Recover the amino acids of this structure.
């Protein structure tokens, strides 16, 4: 199986690509033009194709998807003003999903965030899971949560309109070497 991994040079992306390669997948790793590929420990793997692309621009995304069976979409912006986060999270996702439709790719594993849950209205002690309510008033949340909520709507629309096979993962805390949480 061949995977396209977006955001492959990011903190989480580096680990996802490594694990996919370890499990024998062929991986096309999409990184930004500004990414330093020397920092990618798997860059010389036999089952890896490294591509540079800008998901905020639609050009070239269909080419990146040729021959791919599934997409692992990690690319997003965690910082910056609304315009920056919107472009790198929402516009990038719109462009990717449009290209996936054109290339007839239906399988998408999308990484979102715990921030989309309506955790302020979930009773104390209740377990938050995939059936927990999503924030109904995104304008009351920070820019990151707002753009991730829009992104999740795009995932669900893609799934419904194209009979897509979408899995959304919502990690709460991502930490590890050189990315400590405290």
């Amino acid at each position: 199986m061949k995977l396209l991994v977006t955001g492959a040079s990011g903190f989480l992306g580096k680990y996802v690509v490594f694990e996919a390669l370890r499990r024998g997948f062929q991986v096309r790793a999409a990184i930004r033009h500004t990414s330093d590929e020397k920092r990618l420990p798997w860059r010389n793997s036999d089952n890896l194709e490294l591509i540079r692309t800008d998901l905020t621009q639609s050009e070239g995304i269909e080419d990146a998807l040729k021959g791919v069976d599934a997409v692992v979409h990690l690319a997003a912006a965690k910082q910056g003003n609304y315009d920056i986060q919107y472009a790198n999270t929402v516009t990038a996702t719109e462009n990717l999903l449009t290209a996936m439709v054109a290339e007839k790719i239906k399988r998408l594993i999308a990484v979102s965030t715990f921030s989309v849950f309506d955790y302020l209205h979930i009773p104390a002690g209740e377990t938050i899971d995939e059936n927990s309510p999503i924030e109904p008033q995104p304008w009351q949340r920070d820019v990151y949560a707002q753009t991730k909520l829009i992104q999740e709507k795009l995932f669900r629309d893609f799934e419904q309109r194209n009979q897509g096979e979408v899995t959304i993962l919502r990690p709460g805390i991502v930490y590890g070497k050189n990315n400590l949480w405290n």
In short: The radius of gyration is 16 Å. The chain has a mean pLDDT of 94.
